Amino acid sequence: MNNYSQTSLEWLRQVSGLLIEDEEWHYHYVPNLDCELVHGRLGEGTLVEMQVDPKDIVGLSYGFAYNGKVWIEHLRDLKRPSSIIHLNHTLDDLKRFIDKSLLEDSFDRIMLRQVGTKFIITNGQHRACIAKFINYPIKSASVYPVISGLTENELMNFIHLKTEEAQSRIFRYL
Known about the structure:
The chain has helices at 3-16, 33-38, 71-76, 81-87, 91-99, 125-134, 152-171, and strands spanning 43-44, 48-52, 57-60, 111-115, 118-123, 138-148. Strands 1, 2, 3, 4, 5 and 6 form a six-stranded mixed β-sheet that branches. Helix 5 (91-99) packs across helix 6 (125-134). The longest helix is centred in the C-terminal third of the chain and has 20 residues, at 152-171. The protein is α/β, with parallel strands linked by helices. The chain contains seven helices and six strands; from the N terminus they run H-H-E-E-E-H-H-H-E-E-H-E-H. The N and C termini lie close together (8 Å). The protein has one domain (3-171).
């Protein structure tokens, strides 16, 4: 883990007051659904509102800025980190930050795509990523089930393959 990744994780530990241990999933590859997996073959079902366990979030769909990263790098590379750090000083602040998408008319809701039992972040990367690291449930997310072109098994096999590649890249420098 590089210093900046460590700093981001240390900040979360300090602010949340939680003992956030290094976990294997911190080094799992975070696939970018649109850029790496679907290539125009994505179909979506009807939008549903649901609570989501952050452990079931396995990827994102958000331009090229986050491509090729594992979760610890994703935490480090979130856009506008200083605004998040300066506005969140306690665990309750972090929970309020994650829950801010509860307002139904919020344009900044956490949005996910569902592939089997797994989820891909499409909006609210900061909040969903922090929820994942502090293991805080997302109380209400707008979820579009993926109905064509990609199975959960295909998604998880892709993550496994890319995790091995990413870990060899990361750990080569330690």
